[in-house]
Amino acid sequence: MPVITRDVVIVGAGPSGLTAATELRKAGLTVAVLEARDRVGGRTWTGDIDGAMIEIGGQWLSPHHTAALELVAELGLETFSRYREGESVFLDADGGRHQFTGDVFPAPEATAAEIDRLLALLDGLAAEVGAEEPWTHPHARELDSIPFSIWLERQSDDEYARETVAFYVSGAMLTKPAHTFSALQALQMAAAQGSFTALATDTFMLDRRVIGGMQQVSQRLAAQLGDDVHLNAPVRTVRWSDAGVTVFAEGDLEVHAGRMVLAVPPNLYSAIRFDPPLPRRRHQMYQHMSFGFVVKVHAVYPTPFWREKGLSGTGFSDNDFVSEVYDNTNHGMDNGALVGFIAHEQADAVFDLEPEDRRKTVLDCLVRYLGPEAANPVVYYESDWGAEEWTRGAYGVSFDLGGLTRYGHDHRAPLGPIHFACSDLAGHGFQHVDGAVRMGRRAAKAIATQHSLV
């Protein structure tokens, strides 16, 4: 059995774990990174599908993602802007198709004004709640005990305005129905992105991509770490005490370390046997954190035909299967690529279909957005992270009703020698690569500080 001794062992070779390992190395500590998959990158994955480069996982950077943008630049990577010239398309509940410009969906004047009023109200509350410690807000318990959908009903009697505002969090971010998470969770999601208005602005949230793919961030970090990154090594047992940890992974790998960074989403902690078991409160906490469900669909065409029609490739719907679609053409390519998203209950319905029926249903929706040319892609692919053994959902983990105020103040706290780092635990950058980088740095700083005091 290979036995390794290091200062710190990191479980998970996504952006968070690899950032932590890199920062610890800079602090003069030795590391070992254990990854269950046969690749690095975690929920970022740039794949070759039938000759097309597909961003299977996370891909976008926004202006407020300063930690991730800084790391991208440090690694010598470049970014490019998403194509968004021309008109966007909105499919309404009655089957109507509307072309529009700007960030707000077409709506009657009174409803548009109500959407603006709700966004302004939410912006103010999100600023008060903040991204890092929303559970400390004076009204946190009240906001955390009410579903976001019910909270919106108490603020407005305009159903269309409520559904539009709910979509920005429910369909576009947490990928859960708005009755399953609290108003406080919605406000924390918005605060983590700067404001609710920023969350509702696709040209802000989906701003830039990394040329060559987001997975390169992890690949370049891993290359710097060299043989200290071990793939195909799912961790099965962790023995821990105040003196340190012993980690046992598949492949008969055993690592002894003074500290550990658990850099995987909380829903995967249960795949590891802890000896002694984690405290009761920790087990309870993780039972109140869950992934949403979203399917990312990719369609590649010989040309970006929508641009010739004066369309940006951006589209939204409040009731069709594909609720969002965007131009996802790679940098410098002559072909055209679209990416669409099918979230929560709509994703449930689509996956009740057989694969060929599901493909036809998705492409029929793209036709409604962009025209008959969308029916015949040269490459079609579905990113189903719910089926990934080492993820089991998308985009990220969030608390159920009451969870933030009940457990939030504990969910980032170290447990003896064990530290926790992933985008799901972040404040700023929550559920994004930026949050993963921030949490990796945070864990590394805490461990390096402890080490210097010993």
From TrEMBL:
<protein>
    <submittedName>
        <fullName>FAD-dependent oxidoreductase</fullName>
    </submittedName>
</protein>
<comment type="similarity">
    <text>Belongs to the flavin monoamine oxidase family.</text>
</comment>
<dbReference type="InterPro" id="IPR050703">
    <property type="entry name" value="Flavin_MAO"/>
</dbReference>
<keyword id="KW-0560">Oxidoreductase</keyword>
<dbReference type="InterPro" id="IPR002937">
    <property type="entry name" value="Amino_oxidase"/>
</dbReference>
<dbReference type="InterPro" id="IPR001613">
    <property type="entry name" value="Flavin_amine_oxidase"/>
</dbReference>
<feature type="domain" description="Amine oxidase">
    <location>
        <begin position="16"/>
        <end position="447"/>
    </location>
</feature>
<dbReference type="InterPro" id="IPR036188">
    <property type="entry name" value="FAD/NAD-bd_sf"/>
</dbReference>
<dbReference type="Pfam" id="PF01593">
    <property type="entry name" value="Amino_oxidase"/>
</dbReference>
